[in-house]
């Protein structure tokens, strides 16, 4: 059950754009994780957007900068992504954010998008009061034969 947390400055994106961004980030994460795009698989993908006050988005210790920064935090079961998938995910998430704000993909703009991938061991993650949540996650992938045991 991966999830995506997106932290943005208040007013950086209208709500309709936020909704579209989360839908696209979910699609990208599913693609890189090799999760089939089925209703059941989508139902286990979670996400939240956190808007911080306009003066709570700091750069160089100051809230006075022209363009907003974006922080994307991905939580995912350990060993679901190899290095190539992580690189692609970070690149594609950056593209989704910059496209949403209609910015070019210059290095200056790309550096405003920070992506962190947190891999969590199954025994460090509980859902519904239980550690065996991974069984539900993998069974959704098993339905279409895409689950592979971590190496």
Please estimate the helix content. 25-40%
* C-alpha end-to-end distance: 18 Å
Q: Over all CA atoms, what is the radius of gyration?
A: 16 Å
Subunit arrangement of the protein:
single chain
The tally of strands reads: 4
Domain module count: 1
pLDDT < 50 stretches: none
- Note the overall shape: globular
CATH homology superfamily name: Macrophage Migration Inhibitory Factor
Instruction: Quote the CATH topology.
Output: Macrophage Migration Inhibitory Factor
One letter per element, helices H and strands E, the order comes to: EHHEEHHEH
Q: List the total number of helices.
A: 5
Give the integer mean of the pLDDT values. Answer: 86
CATH architecture: 2-Layer Sandwich
Largest pleated sheet: 4 strands, mixed
Secondary structure layout plus pairing:
Blueprint: E1 3-9, H1 15-33, H2 39-43, E2 46-52, E3 70-77, H3 83-100, H4 107-110, E4 113-120, H5 134-142
Parallel strand pairs: 1-2, 3-4
Antiparallel strand pairs: 1-3
Helix pairs in contact: 1-3
